[in-house]
Amino acid sequence: MFHSGELAVQHRMGQAAAAARVGRSIRTGIPAVAASFLAEQSMVVLGAADPAGRLWASPLTGPAGFVHAVGDATIDIDTLPEDADPLSVALSSEVEVGLIALQPQRRRRMRVNGTSAVRAGGLRITTEQVYANCPKYISRRQIREVAAAGAPGPVWRGTALTTAAVEMVGAADTFFVATADDNGHADASHRGGNPGFLQVLSPTRLRWPDYRGNSMFMTLGNLAVQPRCGLLVADWSTGALLQLTGRAELVWETAAFTSGAQCAVDFTVEQVVRRPGALAVRWGPPELSPNNP
Length: 293
Description:
seven-stranded antiparallel beta sheet, 5 helices, 17 strands, 14% helix
């Protein structure tokens, strides 16, 4: 069920038994409760590798119902990424993907891993893993669907964070992570905490604490065997998106992370894409999670 990286982190954390127990909830198919949850969502985040092997996390949005189960192990998404999205080329052909659906107003989330292929007007994902996550560290917010005010702003690309990007990162209480194992199986996950938990060490170096979750350590397990990683940070009030790709390293020295964390992750930025106003779904102000350290 778990690959070597996940098993190694589970054992290091002393959570192997808990992981085996929680892992029994992972399904290959889509239970009715998961199908209903997906059909309520106006945004999902996909994690995948581009043709050069770089990992990115990208949002897809639409009215409730734009993501829907069409079979026991098939999910259709009725949209495609914009041309400016770093995953637009990758998602135009068959590719391994991770998907996370986050419902901040109810502090709920679920994840799907599988294979994506293009269909008319959107994507079709054949599921390999379907499972729910606990509500820890999710900031409660109300979602507002709005039409973008005019065209999105000009896309900026670079290799280091600008001053504006540093401000976005420093204000974030929520971000998304794309990882993959050494066989290319992709995953998308959520990280939450108090603003500032995603630390800027330099314009090309970030760090975040890893708080205790479901004990399966899928994100950390992937990073243990494949350091490539992608991050998605959003300004939920303006729709600005910050997409980063680079390499991550697990940090076990306790002096490197804050109280309440199990370890830390250091992320080296290799490419940055900033897309002002690109997100059509906006979130209201946060009610931070009581689980945040």
